[in-house]
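Any chance you could type out a protein's amino acid sequence plus the matching backbone structure tokens because I've never seen that pairing?

——
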Amino acid sequence: MGHASTDTDVVVAGAGPTGLMLACELRLAGVEVMVVEQLAERTGESRAGGMHSRTLEVLDQRGVLDRFLAAGHLTPVGHFSGLWLDFDDFESRHPLPLMILQSTIERLLEEWAAELGVRVRWSSEVSGVRQDEAGVAVELRTTKAAPATLRARYLVGCDGGRSTVRRLSGIDFPGTPATMTALLGDVVLPGLPEEFIFMRRCPGGHFSALSLEPGWHRVITSEYDRVAGRDDSVTFEQLRESLIRLAGTDYGMHSPRWVSRFSDTARQAAKYRDGRVLLAGDAAHIHFPAGGQGLNIGVQDAVNLGWKLASVVRGQAPESLLDSYHAERHPVGERLLHNTRAQSALARPGADMDALREVFGSVMAFDDVNRYLRGMITALDIRYPVDGDHPLGDAGSPTPTSRRPTVPPASTNCCTPPAPFCSTCAAAPRWRRPPGTGPTASTSSRHGARTTTGPPRSWARSPLPPRSSSAPTATSPGPPPPARPTPPPSGPPSPRGSARPCLGEAPPETGGSPLS
């Protein structure tokens, strides 16, 4: 659909999950798009390892979810700073996280993009950006040919945390610097005594060893108050030494496929749109990778932007519609940085933080707290404000930009607002305490002082009773998993809100494949 004066309607810089998803969205609407990528080919590296419910919903809406389900496996658990969350089938048709490596996600998106006619230009690095009232000129530096210039109506930077598009466009990237260093590598780990280790806390930080593929383990070490330089080299020997400092052994690791580094640096673009240049994914926000949120938020950025940009390009909407992309997604990015900062702080070592984690884990035993954190991690709780009245909604009804609930309405509250411990209020939290355990605590409510069962100190180590049965879902045939499920390929995970011990304590049960 490109105009005679342009090479394409939209240039997307970056062929990662965000860039490819955006390109597919644009092609579905009939918009011509060119993806440019500085790499010569895929590296096979996979920093991310899963997809959450909202992303699965989007892929389902596009009719391609089955491809991803066939390439991964569903798991009934997630975490908040290493404290377990459990998932159920109340919020979504796809309630369970999908464990799938980023390299597989990119391959499947690239195959879909090719089917839609997306053109990908490899070995092409953006080296200059000039925009005017009619479009934007994108200068490319290539390794195999002379420099080139593409003319497009819009440019979208999906080119990662060190985005060249963002830098050349002069968009500020404020935030907070690193306070820790984490190393990550896929290695052979013959001496690991357990099927996997997840966020084992130690005096200097924590480490994980996750089996994501047969024969390979992903080792992640996190050391606090040790900050590496941005351009410092990363080696396998550094990863091995870091694991020895934390675990006292390297478990015989060898044969690294790749090694990388990350930190808790948190930054967000001051604006997601500057005229005809827009940002999405890591180019718009970087953060501590806690809870497996980064790739998912990037894909959701792309879906929010895709239909709006297509509508403007096709002349079906005014250019001002693009301003709603920043208005809706910038607050989502802010909250992403906020909750990952909290998770990074909560993961810090020390006796004070151990106590805080124990208390926080006890609070997570409330269904409402678990649901709140789960909604935040999965992005199922995102709502976009609608100014004034809207013809598709009325007072008390979901707006067109809200997710319509998939559960039947709860019983009427007898208190306004609902009393925290009223046994009949629909919004009252419900304790899932094993029978006969734990003390009682005196609690005040609108009904006056009353005695109610509170969580014991040993809550984090206590088993949870199974949930009541409900109807099967499309992605999870049969009854839903119990509160302490058994995800493949390992044994059951720790109960909701439980934490991993420091080195020297007896190891807890291990199992599952949590999102990192």
